[in-house]
Amino acid sequence: MFISLSLKKNKFLHTLLLCHNKIGPLGAKELAVGLKSNRSLKKLNLAGNKIETEGFTKLVMPLQGPHPLSSLDISENEIGPHAGTQLALILKKNTTLLELNIAGNNLGPDAGKEVVQAYIAKKNPILLNLSGNNIGPKNKGLLSKYPLAKC
């Protein structure tokens, strides 16, 4: 609750590093509440917090449209194969995001395909880290043409 309230009210916070803090799905939901109204945050690192699919779904809702966030690290959060559609929406609709690290989330080939297709369709490629997601050789092959993408 404290972090969501702080994000709502703080107009000067540009970077928030909460990696490896055991936030979990409930903490991710609270962060999402704060992200909806925060317009100053540019970099958010939530690596290794066991956010899982449930927390990830809530967390990314505010980021699927215009949001000033330019760097998001949600690596190693066990978001799983159901996250592909939401990740693709972020890539399609968020025009300010320049860096997305989703490494080590076990997305699998189907979710990987959704992410890869959205990335390829993007007019301005961003730094994308998909390593450790078992996205399959076909998806890896498609991304091999893009130097900003790592898988």
Structural descriptors:
single chain; 151 residues; alpha/beta; 6-stranded parallel sheet; 6 helices; 11% strand
Please give a structural write-up.
With 151 residues, this protein is α/β, with parallel strands linked by helices. Helices cover 41% and strands 11% of the residues. The protein has a 6-stranded parallel sheet, with no helix packed on it. Helix 1 packs parallel to helix 2 and helix 4 runs parallel beside helix 5. The mean pLDDT is 93.
- The 3D shape can be described as globular
Count of alpha/pi helices: 6
Taking the alpha carbons of the first and last residues, their distance comes to: 35 Å
Q: Determine the fraction of residues in helical runs and give it as a percent range.
A: 40-55%
Q: Output mean pLDDT.
A: 93
Give the biggest beta sheet.
Answer: 6 strands, parallel
* Strand arrangement across the biggest beta sheet: 1-2-3-4-5-6
Helix-strand string: HEHEHEHEHEHE
Question: What portion of residues belong to β-strands?
Answer: 5-15%
pLDDT under 50 segments (min length 5)? none
Rg (CA only): 14 Å
Q: What's the β-strand tally?
A: 6
Classification by helices and strands: alpha/beta
